[in-house]
Fold:
Amino acid sequence: MKGILTILLLLSFFVGLEAQTVTVSNDISIRNDKYYSIVGKMKNRFLLFRDRSTKFEVQAFNEHLRQIWEKEITLDKKNPQILEVVPGQEDFKVIYKFRRKGRYIVKMHQYDAAANLQDSMTILRYEQRFHSPNTQLLFSEDKNAILIYHYEQQTTIEACAFLLDQKQVVWKRKFTLKELSFYRDYQQLVLANDGSLYCIIEKNNRRPDQEEHHFKVFVSDHYNSGVRQFSIPVTEFLTYDVKFAFDNLNRQLVAAGLFSKKNKGRATGYFYLKVDPQQTEKYLLGYEPFDEGYINNILGKESEKKKGITDLAIVETILRRDGGMLIAAERKREYERRTAATGRYSRDDFSPYIVDYYYDDICLISVHPDGNTHWKTILHKKQYSQDDDASFSSFFLLKTPKNLRFLFNDEIKDNSTVSEYVVNGKGDADRNSVMSTEFQNIRLRFRDAIQVASNELIIPSERRNRLRLVRVQY
Structure:
């Protein structure tokens, strides 16, 4: 049937007789597109930005996801490269890079909900150089502060912090991290809402008896003319995985991690770290090993052979208002294998490879501000795909005032179902079915979904170079 496919699901097994409306748009051909971005919801319109190789275009959809208009927008003529499309409450910004007279320039265009140009501003002009810098962007928690940066010779960072709404460059500098071994040391950049940058590297995370194991933090902000630094010793264990964030409400740098006591190939517990950047000697490090029951619940029969958890990675850190944190870790792995002989030979006499992706259980751990465990639970799922870069695996986290919703594909195939775990503040989790994708010709990319309201999200579906927008409203 031509037009809009709207599915209204009233599921009797939902807690409190909850219901959700699922609306699916018509097919959009993206065969020749270089890039697309779901901008978000503005004035009851859903906007889609497209780089169509030869032009840039914004399309608008109504609440039934019926396309109501499209508009071409003009950027600079010298082959502009889109860096990011940033949604706002009543406007959106396109950040792009182009070359003019041998110099690379980063510029911002601001558009209203009707895709009319409101403002234009040059953010950064690079010095003349032969090659284009590998420009990367990093956003703060509120998406207003942005870091425009690139690495030079692996140890030098050239960066500029910019506030989007204020249209203000906070600071701009180039600094060298002499202690950084780019391919050996862990490194992460974290940006606060005020534009302060925290560059974290990890040193001596190799041997269980390494007493010099520590995190070193370099701070660049507009309060100081240079870059200051401080260290946090972590001599109790080896780091298996870690993810840093900045708690803007409580003004502290925080980290969630997994640790190993002897073998870095297995995670044997989890840790929580926080430090006040103004009083760095007052840091807190809380950690706890996994108990045997928790490991058995994840590994099943595998737990008989292993004393820890393999293939576990921190994917989400949800900051609590009291200064605590909810840690979400996912068990994921990939295997590369050669196919059987196909009768054709490549120049290097190798057969093609197949990559298998496994995305399984989600481990949730809630930690109090003092580092002690509040609760922990496991959300069971099993996802397998092949040669798709795991684009349809993992989950999307919908944050609401009452609970958290973890949405995911039950199976990575055309005809499947979508499920969710609803988790409350006490760690209680209910699993529900959200919708069926059978006969709908959709494949949902939950990792690329965006939340547009407390009870609403938009998920892109890609199948055979056709894009469809899927709206889920609770």
User: Anything to note?
Assistant: The first helix runs from residue 292 to 299. Confidence is low (pLDDT under 50) at residues 1-17, 341-349. The helical segments are 292-299. The CA atoms of residues 316 and 328 lie 5 Å apart.
